[in-house]
Design goal:
By secondary structure, the chain is of the alpha+beta class. The chain contains 21 helices and 22 strands.
């Protein structure tokens, strides 16, 4: 049977099991006797082995089998999950992940695992494969999807076949013999059951499904099948599986029970499917279509306003509600818990802390907080940089912490929460903090700022210098991290998503990095402003307030224009100068849109505000994708293309 069609499903499920194994193994290292964790580990390992065998990935199956043996011995108390054992198991999981990556890329997933297998077996050569056979319950170990030849395995029970098969079908007893040389007869049996379920209904098996999965049968097992095929076709289908020696098919002839027609077959094993897997690309297509509907809705409202048709107004109200509901549902479908990204960091912290000789307790809060899939994908690398920095530069060695009166074990927290319409992610450590004066000296040495600028900077402004490209306070460059090596990428990436980065630090006490993110970047509320004959959109999440401004209100300090709003001096940027737009010079009153960029507020001078409305963000591509001052465009109801302003880069270009 061609398994290539199930490759994507296999990769998806394999990654889920590997992530579960990583998380459970971390928990096991902390509590080596936790029976629930051990059982969870064994179930995932057992399932992964069955999946790889079903798909024909031999090397992966071999490594899974050896790893499962090790887990089995831990489960049976024959081996203690100490650091040495856990490290070898993590190495095995890393190799399995590399195999899955290769399979996803269309390769065979073959890697040389001989040395790793030898290392696993060296944990205890004499009992490497002699421990008791796994006794995992079928409902726990039974893999889904790709695990059973990448399709739904029929629910079967050990019971008499129901009298009265479906109309047109016959009843057969299929006795299958597995070759004596077969190493994984339980898996082969499942494949046979899967094959038979494609041409009929599997009513029951002897022995039952639990015993088949645990390989508690000899060389034969029996399947009771309802099918409209011939005995020859059924035999051919059963023998289509490798390492099957024989398949004997016998038709069962039953007499109708007295007292009326035969009772229909029961519905044992029937399942209602409550969820389906959807390719991410399809969600993107649906999102784009919803965006087009939003644009068309705006166009219809514009036409309706011009024509003044009452009947059209009423219908448009209903269309508007339907589009809004559809939009909200699609947005909800695209939302994923941050745990999809957070769950990889405990392993990263564990590995780096072991390598650096540090003791760290890593805790995660708010894993259920949801973000749009696009935002979630984009924050993975920035979070990776920040977590590595906290481990490498933040937390001290145990002896140093004790000397400072701190506990030997450092604390790192990763917290996510909703705050109004935004998502806040915090990375907190109780390490040595950031020496702001040292950061300033490094910036001066590299020519990034002058001594006068450094003296005028507040502590908060000085801390933000670590986001300057190329600035690092590390004495040596390591492969783990480096403040300034990648930190500028963190800031750029977060701001490109419409978010902000803030750092709070106390020397000797620790550092808190705060990321403020919009939940989605596809459809947003925006303020539409007029500048001369041009129109621009500003994301409402950046807007703090608006204020009418007259020419006399604009002052100049050191050659830079500013305005004063409620005793606060704000830098003023004239958008018509930035975009070289002709404006009406006779205009005496303007509008200042106060926007927030990080902790800094600036005022953008425009002619007027047109409206606030929902817009669909289309990213810039080709030659326009690196244009400063713009983060995308949107299309209005009349077909006009309106640029969406990127507040962060506008202020940088102005400076």
């Amino acid at each position: 049977m061609d398994m290539s069609a199930y490759r994507d499903m296999f990769v998806s499920e394999a990654r889920e099991h590997l992530q579960n194994l990583n998380s459970s193994l971390l928990a096991l290292e902390k509590c080596p006797t936790d029976a629930d964790v051990i059982q969870e580990i064994f179930r995932s390992a057992h399932t992964l082995k069955g999946m790889s065998a079903s798909m024909g990935f031999k090397e992966m199956e071999t490594l899974c089998h050896r790893t499962e043996n090790l887990f089995d011995r831990i489960r049976n108390g024959q081996l203690v999950a100490d650091t040495r054992v856990v490290t070898v198991l993590f190495k095995s999981l890393d190799t399995l992940e590399a195999m899955v990556d290769a399979i996803e890329a269309g390769e065979s997933g073959s890697l040389d695992v001989a040395a790793l297998v030898k290392e696993i077996e060296s944990m205890d050569v004499n009992s490497a494969c002699s421990g008791p056979q796994p006794q995992v319950q079928a409902h726990e170990a039974q893999p889904s999807g790709a695990a059973h030849a990448a399709a739904d395995t029929p629910e079967v029970q050990s019971m008499a076949i129901p009298a009265g098969a479906a109309a047109g079908s016959k009843e057969f007893e299929v006795v299958v013999t597995v070759e004596k040389s077969c190493e994984f007869k339980g898996i082969r049996a499942f494949l046979v059951i899967q094959q038979l379920s494609e041409i009929g209904k599997v009513a029951s098996t002897v022995p039952d499904i639990k015993d088949i999965e645990d390989e508690r049968f000899g060389q034969e097992f029996t399947v009771l099948l309802q099918s409209d095929r011939t005995a020859g076709e059924i035999e051919k289908k059963a023998r289509n599986v490798a390492e099957i020696g024989a398949a004997k098919v016998t038709e069962i002839v039953r007499k109708e029970a007295a007292g009326g027609p035969a009772r229909p077959a029961g519905k044992e094993g029937t399942k209602v499917i409550h969820s389906v897997r959807i390719d991410i690309d399809r969600l993107d297509i649906i999102m784009n279509l919803v965006g087009e509907l939003v644009i068309s809705r705006g166009r219809l409202f514009e036409i309706c306003g011009k024509q003044g048709i009452h009947e059209l107004n009423e219908t448009l109200g209903m269309v508007d509600r339907s589009i809004t509901d559809l939009q909200n549902e699609v947005m909800r479908i695209r939302m994923l818990p941050v745990d999809h990204v957070f769950n990889r960091f405990p392993r990263i912290v564990r590995d780096i802390s072991k390598k650096e000789g540090k003791e760290i307790e890593f805790t995660i809060e708010g894993q259920d907080t949801e973000l749009d899939r696009t935002v979630l994908d984009e924050i993975s690398d920035p979070l990776n940089h920040l977590i590595r920095n906290a481990v490498d530069h933040g937390i001290e060695k145990p002896e140093d912490r004790i000397a400072q009166g701190k506990p030997a074990t450092g604390q790192i927290q990763l917290i996510a929460r909703r705050e109004r319409s935004n998502v806040i992610i915090e990375i907190i450590d109780d390490g040595k903090g950031i020496d702001v004066d040292r950061v300033k000296r490094k910036a001066i040495d590299k020519g990034l700022i002058t001594q006068a600028q450094a003296d005028a900077m507040s502590e908060e402004e000085g801390v933000m210098l670590i986001f300057k490209p190329g600035l690092s306070t590390a004495d040596r460059v390591t492969e783990v991290s480096g403040r300034g090596v990648g930190m500028d990428i963190v800031k750029t990436k977060i701001e490109s998503l419409g978010g902000t980065v803030k750092i709070e630090t106390h020397l000797g006490k620790g550092t808190k990095t705060i990321l403020k993110l919009p939940p989605t970047i596809a459809i947003v509320q925006a303020l539409l402003v007029n500048v001369g004959a041009e129109k621009y959109a500003i994301s409402i999440t950046n807007v703090v307030e608006t204020e009418y401004v007259k020419d006399k209100d604009i002052k100049t300090i050191n050659g830079n224009e500013v305005i004063v709003i409620r005793d606060t001096i704000l830098p003023l940027y004239r958008l018509y100068k930035f975009f070289d737009v002709e404006v009406d010079s006779s205009l005496k009153r303007h509008t200042a849109v106060v926007v927030e960029k990080g902790e800094e507020k600036v005022a953008l001078l425009v002619d007027s505000i047109e409206s606030q409305q929902e817009i669909f963000v289309k990213p810039l591509g080709g030659l326009l994708q690196n244009v400063k001052g713009l983060e995308g465009v949107t299309i209005m109801g009349n077909g006009r293309v309106v640029p969406i302003l990127d507040v962060a880069t506008i202020t940088e270009v102005k400076k």
